[in-house]
Write a structure and sequence with these properties.
Layout (H helix, E strand, L loop, with lengths): L1 H8 L14 H29 L25 H15 L5 H25 L9 H21 L24 H5 L13 E3 L7 E3 L12 H26 L5 H20 L2 H7 L10 H19 L8 H18 L6 H4 L1 H24 L11 H7 L4 H21 L5
Length: about 425
């Protein structure tokens, strides 16, 4: 809103500092600060409200150290994250930008699904919450929406092999009218494509069309169908992975902050014509605006971590965890970095796999030996280390360190080919 207000005012009055609002870096910094401050300000009030309404976490006794001390801790704290990030996005981002629209829909979509799950658990006293099928339907529906928008929207395009005249191009004026009217003639033509980034190969790109069993332009729609199926799989997997990781104080929040910071860097590089040329990566017009969204999201996560760190004053609940995972997945897809998710979101992946392996092995051994056996002392993986006697803060800190290492490896893949 402020973004458009400044644009309108400058038509009639060139006031000092107005030019700053055309820079993505300035608006991103403003979004981060506002979301962080807002999270810190409203966090305590929301926690007190949840306490008054006795909206506390129901704890099943799993024999974990310190577990029962968390009983009654307010949940549904994901509301703090969502409220803190949406406000600065609406204030500082170009809300008519197609990428911002998709991310706002993603946030609200999964926020509603997560809130419904928490509401059923807390207010209706149903520990199961939403059925697994209902959650999957919500995630699949979102994946279908995102895939169709990327297929059908004329504003979501890619420019490859960018060659830029540095005397003409400006570093951060991607969204300014002056830059759009004077783009270098050497920039390649925009095209609709299913290409994405893949690490450790020469050209650093992968096109989903190679998975299409049919050849010819008339079967191009099959490639997009394959792409949409991949989008659905990624959103479902990452969203559930974040949900499973949310089991210790500050764990999911801290890991997500590292992941989202890395994705913000990718968005900035992919949406900047000069950096895209230098790194020899796909240039995605208008995607730089995503940096504003991600900055607001990071600020909200850091602000929430203030209250969610050990010992937690509030839990995010599914309102937060499902939404966080969905935002990470959709953001990675939009900046064409979804194939880097297994590395970048390695914590989420391992948490997911630990549950799948534990359940599968237990069922297999029960059929074969008549008694179920386990690979881990308990799943998800962070509970395994709790069972081994590691203090909760140590587990969380080490998971954060691993997340940082994975983030660095992911960024380095841009130059390793």
């Amino acid at each position: 809103m402020i973004y458009y207000l400044v644009q309108f005012i400058t038509k009639y009055w060139d006031f000092p500092g107005a030019g700053l609002f055309k820079y993505i870096s300035f608006r991103s910094a403003a979004a981060f600060i506002v979301s962080l401050m807002f999270a810190l300000l409203i966090g305590k009030r929301i926690i007190r409200y949840l306490q008054r309404k006795q909206i506390g976490e129901e704890i099943r006794n799993l024999g974990l150290e310190g577990q029962m001390q968390k009983k009654g801790t307010p949940t549904m704290g994901g509301i703090i994250i969502l409220a803190s990030m949406l406000l600065p996005v609406l204030l500082f981002a170009d809300i008519l930008n197609i990428y911002i629209i998709v991310m706002l829909v993603t946030t609200v979509w999964l926020g509603v699904v997560g809130f419904a799950d928490d509401y059923i658990k807390v207010f209706m006293k149903n520990k199961e919450g939403l059925s697994g099928r209902t959650k999957i339907i919500g995630q699949v529906s979102l994946g279908l929406f995102v895939g169709l928008v990327m297929w059908l929207s004329p504003d979501i395009v890619v420019k490859e092999r960018v060659v830029v005249d540095r005397n003409v191009a400006q570093y951060e004026t991607e969204l300014s009218a002056e830059y759009r009217d004077n783009q270098p003639s050497t920039v390649s033509k925009a095209k609709k494509t299913t290409q994405t980034t893949i690490p450790f190969v020469k050209n650093n790109e992968f096109d989903y069309s190679v998975l299409n069993p049919f050849k010819g332009e008339k079967y191009h729609f099959v490639t997009w169908i394959i792409f949409i199926l991949v989008v659905i799989l990624i959103i479902t997997a990452v969203s559930n992975g974040a949900n499973l990781t949310d089991g210790l104080d500050g764990l999911a929040t801290g890991v997500s902050a590292v992941i989202t910071t890395t994705l913000g860097v990718f968005a900035y590089l992919s949406g900047n014509v000069i950096y895209a040329e230098y790194l020899n990566i796909m240039y995605i017009p208008q995607s730089g605006e995503l940096v504003v969204f991600m900055s607001a999201f990071i600020g909200a996560l850091v602000g929430f971590l203030w209250y969610n760190s050990y010992p937690a004053q509030v839990f995010m609940g599914d309102t937060g965890s499902l939404t966080i995972g969905g935002i990470i997945a959709v953001f990675a897809i939009l900046v064409r970095k979804e194939l880097l998710i297994p590395v970048l979101c390695g914590i989420f992946l391992v948490e997911n796999l630990s549950v799948m392996l534990q359940v599968s092995y237990f069922k297999y051994t029960k059929r074969k030996y008549g008694e179920g056996r386990r690979i881990f002392l308990m799943s998800p993986l962070h509970h395994h280390y709790q069972k081994k006697g590691y203090p909760e803060p140590k587990i969380v800190t080490r998971f954060w360190i691993v997340a940082v290492i994975l983030a660095v490896i992911t960024v380095v893949t841009l130059k390793i080919r």
